[in-house]
Amino acid sequence: MPLCSGPNSIKRIASMEDIEFFDICEKEQTAATPFLEQEKDDDDSVTDQFWNVANQQNGKGHKFGEESEEEDKIRSKDASEGVGEDNDSSGEIQERHMNNGNNNNKKTMKYAERVQILNLRRNLNQLDNIAKEKDLTIEKAREELSACQLRIEMLTKERECTETKIEEEKEAGNTAAIFRLQAMHRRLCAELGNEKDLELKIASMLKENVYEMWQIEIEQGKFGSLREQLEQDEEELERHCKERVEQRIQKEKTAARLAERKQQVGKRKEMEAWEAYERRHQKVVEDAHRNHEKAVQFLKKSMSRIRQKEAKEELKTQEHMEKRMQAVLSLKNNITSNRETLRTLQVRDKAKALEAKKQEMKMRGAILAEGGDVTKEIFLHKQRVELERQKQEFTEQQKSRKIEIVARILQEEAYVEKQKKHQARAEALRSQGKLQDSLQWRIKTWQYIENACEDPAAAVLQKSWRTPSACSLVDDKSSSVVDFSKKALQDTIHENNDEEANETLSEPEFTGLWSQECNLYKVPKDETDPKPLGASKMERKIFTENLEKLRSGIIRKQVVSGHEFKGCPFYSKPSLIHFKDFDVGKTYKKKIILINASYSVNFCKLVGVSEHLKDFINIHFDPPGQMSAGMSCEVVVTFKPMINEVLEGKVTFLAQNGSFSIPLKCTTKRCVLALDKELIDFGTHVVGETISRMIILTNRGALGTRFKLQTSAGDNGTCTTTAKSSLERMVSPALDGITSEEKASSSPVESSINENKEQVSPVHTEEVRQTCMVGESQKTENNLGSSHVEQLSQDALITEADLEAENAQCPAEPPPEEEPIEITLGKVTEGEIGPFSSIKLQIIFTPSVPGDVHAEFEITFDNPNCKPLHFSVIGVSVDVPVWVPNPNVDLKICMYDRLYQDCIIIRSRAKAALRLKFEVCKELSKHMELLPKTGYIQAQSSFSVQLKFLPRLSLPEDAGKYFDTETRVLEVPMTIMIADKTKPIEFIVHAIVTTSDLEVSPAEVNFGYCTIYEAVQTTITLTNKSILPQEFGFVGLPEFVEIQPSDGFGILLPLESLNLDIIFKANKAKEYSFELTCKSEINRQFKLSCKAVGVHPPLELSHSLVKFAATALNDVSTATLYVINAHVSRNRFTHAVPRIGKGEIAPVGSTSFEFLVPEDSPVTIMPSVGTVLPGKKCLIQVYFRPVLSEQLIREEAVQMLCRADAQTTMMKKIRESEMQKRKDETVSGKKDGKKPSFAALRQPLRVRSSKHAAASSGFEPPKPEEIKTNSEEYIAAQYSLIRNFTGKFERYIIPCFVASGDIDEKIGSENLKYSPYNTLYLELHCPAVAPSVVVTSNNGKNIVNFGEVAVGHRVIKQITIQNISQEQLALGFSILNPNGPFLLVSPVGTLEPGENQFLFISFCPNESKLFFETLDIRSIKATLTLSIIGQGVAPSIACSVEGEVLDMGYVIAKEKVTSTFKIQNTSTLPLRYSIKLESLSQTRDKEQQRLPFFITSPPGRTDFVGTQNYSGLSVFNIFPVEGVIEPGKSQDFTVTFSPDHESLYYSDCLKVVLFGKEIAREIWLKGAARNHMMFVEGGDPLDVPLESLAITSPMSEEAAKGELEEPAKSLLLSLEYIQAETSGTPAVRELKIGAIRTAQFASKKNVEFSLDSLPVLQQKGFTIEPVKGTVDRGQIKCISVSWVPPADFDPDHPLMVAAVLTLKGDIKESYKVLFIARVVCT
After folding, report:
1. Shortest CA distance to 1010 belongs to which of 1091, 1121, 1118?
2. Contact 92, 81 (CB under 8 A)
């Protein structure tokens, strides 16, 4: 930030020398601050070390500084380990620190001094820079002055030369040359005058700069000594820095030595630990070697036993496999028999369906014969049948349930009896010994079945792989299964009660699957010994405990570094154990790797595999023990399949922190068959050809199968063609031998009914009948036995006979002729496809009849799991030898009167040349032509014909039916005649014909009046009437016309309308009439007529377009332009003159202007109205200040209120729903474990929705107009909009009206005459952006209002600013008025994104007025302006005490009296006051040392403090002592007078201090104290108002009682009689006698007084009234004394008379009153 130039700024710098300098360059200060703080910290650390060393020497210790403690710890460790050299190193370090401390102590520069040096250097550098800049400015001004003087000399010479030429031409009589030279002479004179004005300006500016330079040099001279001192200080600072660097180096070296010593100690410890580890490792290796030798011996013995055992187990396994194979074969036979049974049931169902269809047809005929509703009757009949069936099913279901219940009861009874026998036998066996293994196995099996199945009867029939049965493979809905289950149930119920049958309720269907004598494998004891070999007793104990914990499945959480591990503790590789394509009897092995994925050491234990995989899967896993994180172990999985089924399960492991499992899957061999394509397209071929294609059948599975390729059962082989001469044919193999049942199953239902055909074939009728029957009989009966098979065959025979009889009655059609087979199969139609192999199948197409051919083929497989594959074959056969490959010639879109050509290719299949003739229909003979018209096509070749199409405008009338006028589509059939052939070849030519017109709307454009300084824009519409895109362009444009966009060139899409802007800019004042030409791409022209009037206004703008920079909200951008009046002459021949078209020329003279700015726009123009003289210009400033509109802020405030209400409502609903949920849970918990119903769960939702409706209807948002600008909602909305402001661009066009004449000379309200055609326009581009820095305090307001502050007082306010942009901002601040009351205390250098910083601004007014300044916070993007306002107010108060004395009156000593006065705040700001007494002042002791005022005789009394109490307590007390008085309010103060002895001179000064500084009012407090109840007041003082320093002891009580009369006291009463020329004024004085109100002296209620020597007084001219009387308590009476000089009075000698005044109260007092009277002449 540059310094303000001038002496004021320099004086300000000098004045702030001795105090803190203000910051001018924030970057330098920011860069220097960390360095200085670091220096300060270093100084502090060095100082601390110095004092530590000093303390160490005084105390003779061994530690110094903060580092000595750490050194002592290291030394103690080194000493314990035998490391020496401690004393030497410590002594060196102490000595070094002592030297450093002494050096630092000699001369240490303070932190504040260093800051002062840096600030002073920066300010001096800035002063030097200002001097350099001013010097450069002076040099430039001098150069410009010399150049100006040179131009003046040149112009003077030219003027003289021109004058000489003018004289010569005058002599020669050349008038034209004289005019030319005179014009040149005037121009030179004008330029010479301008140059002289410029010379004067430059000279004055140079003088000012030189003067300022002198001032700067003077100021630099003032700072000469300061500069020298600064250089010395800088040298001292540099030396200080070097010393500090050396000290740091020493400290680093010391720290390095300590670190090296620590490292040596660590290395020595590491070596010792390594040696101990080697010793332990060697011991472990030796123990392991001994254990290995022992283990080898045991291993040999164990391996021999294991081999023998494995051989026995292998033999048993082979025997068991043979039995299983036999069982599987028997199972296969049973499956085959079940399939045959199912097939028989299906035949029976079909027969029943036929019978039902037949009955339905008969019923339909009977209903039709009766005339009833067939649909309704059949529907009712079906309902009745269905109802009967349901009743029957329900009855049978009830019977079966009864049987089942009885069976369960019997089963339970049998089970109870068996349990009793079992328990008795178990007790008997327990006494004898353990049960046999087979018996234990059967008991365990029964217990597992009992626990797994709720129904004991169902447990008998439980499906398992151990008991494969035929019944398990049959559908549950079939009747045979039901019979079988009933039979099994009856067999179970009537089972004999022998001993073997009672062992278990489940028996295998085939022997060999279960072995009753199967012995469970027992693990030898030596294998389960958990004790490792060679381990100690303690290690064995620990190993045993850990193993027991692991076996017991204890799961512990794993927490490492505060993070709990969650997830799978081990990862497996691979993640899935998959055995693919296995063979029964073989053994497969797979190895997987388990990786410890937890955070620390973990264990892994094998739990087992899934229950149903235990007989096939064997896991070999050696537990590795403890595994660190990332370590792995191996697991071998062995799979020995016994059955050919897909098996899935998992292998479960147990880790320390949870169990995990690995999925296992075993898949059998299967066939995966696929075709390479599903459609074979032969294309088009001539009748008689033979074409073949291949299709590939691929098997991607591991199991082979046998396939068969045949025609699909549903394929009828229909053949359809598009040619009219083609016949319908069927391409399919012979259908002989296909039964009616297969036809019925393959024919669709939709083809069975065709009402449009008159005749229906018997085959179709049969298909319809069978299809309907199948559709109505979807369900089969559930209870059918084997006895129904014979009845089924008889029903089938009857049904076939009936159908034959019906077919014989129906009229039959003659059978169709045999149709040729066009699509056949190759040699390979069936065979064997092996695993992972493929076979090619051949398909042959032999076209025999013209038309389209379509056939469907199916590939079936012997493997029942393989679904059949289907593919289609299509082809086209034609009988014409010549054809057109493209029978539809599409010319696409064509325009009228344009030639289009195309080439038509004709191909021949014939084996000889053919003669062709090409014909065009008569309607289009004028527009279309084929060349040549006749030609020969060679055998097996092609021939091309040229098609020419030239559409005329008469095409719609000529084409007739071939042309559609709406769509403009032309379809023309073309004929090719073949010699010796009656059938022609036709092809069709398609085209869409469209126009090429372009329409310009409007046809004529009138631009109106246009000034030469602006451009007028109008919009025309150019429409493409064609359905093709067209290029266009406006060519030959005049220089004053411009067309946009793209300069009038472009492309119009079909039927598109494009708006073009025609911009007209007049270059002179005249009338314009011209035409614009638009050309299309086909060179068609379209004209547009234009008219305009050019206007030359009297004024012009220096800039007609102002582009403001991006301005932040509430920021101001300024632009400057000029309004120029260049109209100085009406000569239209020499220059262009202001006029409208060809109208009158504007008059020369003053011309006024007025800018009309729209309301509510952020633009301000100053001045907006003015007058410009001829040849002059007027400066115009345009201000752009973007702000948010009030309406937008109000709407945002309403939306924020709605959002807040919605959020409150939502939170309320959430709380209500939670409370309702808790209530529901409480109610549901009280019930006996019953779960709430779904309706109950949905009920809270309905309640919430209803409450939401009530809440939503209850809230009514305020209207935007109701939001006040000073409300919190308004301020919050404004702050939100500013933060979320994304930017806005606005464009304003400001008109400037021009009128001839001076605006100041108009009469009254009369307006100047103006023409609207002379209006100038100013275009403003106003981009607004979001501010980068915003004020977050004071509700986001940019106004800092200090309010009213007392003059001379300082108030500091804190303003918070925030960077809301996304980048770091460097801030700069404008300079406030140095002599003003505002001061920026703490400027901010940089702001990080989103950072908040505080600015402190102080306000200290020096006078009572309103102050206003602006502070600009500048950044790269925008400027934030803060408006600072403050009102200086002089505080004023009004006191209720009249005058300056508050008299407390008389009071009895040691009693109190109070008085109240009021102070009112008459200013406009709150006043903070404090009440101070002079007697309690801190300077009171010093003032008491001075001489009394009555000795020094000052002009007035300055000591207000009188007699004080003996006790030391204050005589006067004031309450309250301090507080605040609001504007216009008042405060009551209570003064308490409490003397402790008798005195008439109690006094003190009360000061009212405002804001702790200013004394607003001083009040003199005075009072008197008496020991008695009466007092006399008045007269002249006879003694000083100060008591003696010696305290007189009071009279004793006995003396007071004995002597009730005190000695007389003296009173002086002086009277002055004023003698005038004619008469005199009597002298009047008063004496006051009072009685103090007190509770003492109850015996005396009043005071009596009397004055003696009255006659003497009267004789001397004194008049006294009253002479005697009484005074009540609390009252005062006045004795008036008046004096008129008697006749014998001598004016030269004053009159003196004495009298005695007696007072009687509690005691009697006498006062000797001395009256002194004199005469004073005026």
Report:
1. 1091
2. no
Q: Tens of pLDDT along 961-1001?
A: 899 988 889 999 998 888 877 778 888 999 999 999 999 99
Contact 43, 37 (CB under 8 A): no
Amino acid at 1450: Y
Residue 1374 to residues 2, 784, 1393: CA-CA distances in angstroms?
Answer: 10, 108, 22
CA atoms within 13 A on the CB side of 1028: 19
- Are 895 and 996 in contact by the 8 Å Cβ rule? The answer is yes
Hey, CA dihedral for 187, 193, 196, 201, is it positive or negative? negative
Which residue in 995, 989, 1008, 1004 sits closest to 903, CA to CA? 989
Query: How many Å apart are CA 1064 and CA 1010, to the nearest integer?
Result: 8
What is the distance between the terminal CA atoms of the chain, rounded to a whole angstrom?
A: 77
Query: Residue-wise over 532-568: b if at least 16 C-beta within 10 A, else e?
Result: eebeeeeeeeeeeeebeebeeeeeeebeeeeeebeee
Taking the C-alpha atoms of residue 458 and residue 1321, their distance in angstroms, rounded to an integer, is 101
The helix/strand/coil state of 286 is helix
Q: For residues 792 and 342, give the distance between their C-alpha atoms in angstroms, rounded to a whole number.
A: 13
Residue 1362 phi, psi (nearest 5): -135, 140
The rounded distance, in Å, linking the Cα atoms of 1626 and 1615 is: 9
pLDDT tens sequence across 55-83: 443 443 333 333 444 444 434 444 334 43
CA separation for the pair 15, 17 (Å, rounded): 6
Give, to the nearest 10 degrees, the angle between helix 111-172 and helix 175-222: 160
Contacts of 1502 (CB under 8 A, 6+ apart): 1493
**Residue 1696 near residue 1713, CB atoms below 8 Å:** no
CA–CA separation, 1455 vs 577, rounded Å?
A: 112
As a whole number of angstroms, the distance between CA 1421 and CA 1606 comes to 95
Helix axes 224-370, 374-432, angle to 10 degrees: 110
- What is the number of H-type helices and E-type strands within the chain? 23, 80
- As a whole number of angstroms, the distance between CA 1270 and CA 1278 comes to 11
Per-chain mean pLDDT for the chain? 76
Please spell the DSSP secondary structure of 1595-1660, one letter per residue.
Answer: PPHHHHHH--BPPPEEEEEEEEEEE-SS-EE-EEEEEEEEE---SS-TT--EEEEEE--HHHHHHT
Q: In what order do the strands lie in the sheet with 588-596?
A: 570-573, 588-596, 632-639, 617-620
Measured distance CA(15)–CA(11) in Å, rounded: 6
Distance (Å, whole) CA 1650 – CA 484:
154
CA torsion, ordered 1647, 1653, 1659, 1660, to nearest 10 deg? -80
d(CA 1136, CA 1140): 12
Residue range 1324-1375, pLDDT digits in tens: 999 998 888 888 887 777 888 888 888 888 889 988 888 888 888 888 898 8
Q: Which residues of 422-461 are buried (b: 16+ CB within 10 A; e: fewer)?
A: beeeeeeeeeeeeeeeebebbeebbeebeeeeeebbebbb
The 10 Å Cβ neighbour count of residue 1701 is 22
What DSSP state is assigned to residue 344? H
Q: Report CA torsion sign: 472, 475, 477, 482.
A: negative
DSSP E strands in 941-981: the ranges are 942-949, 963-964, 969-978
Which of 1587, 1594, 1514, 1591 lies closest to 1544, judged by CA? 1587
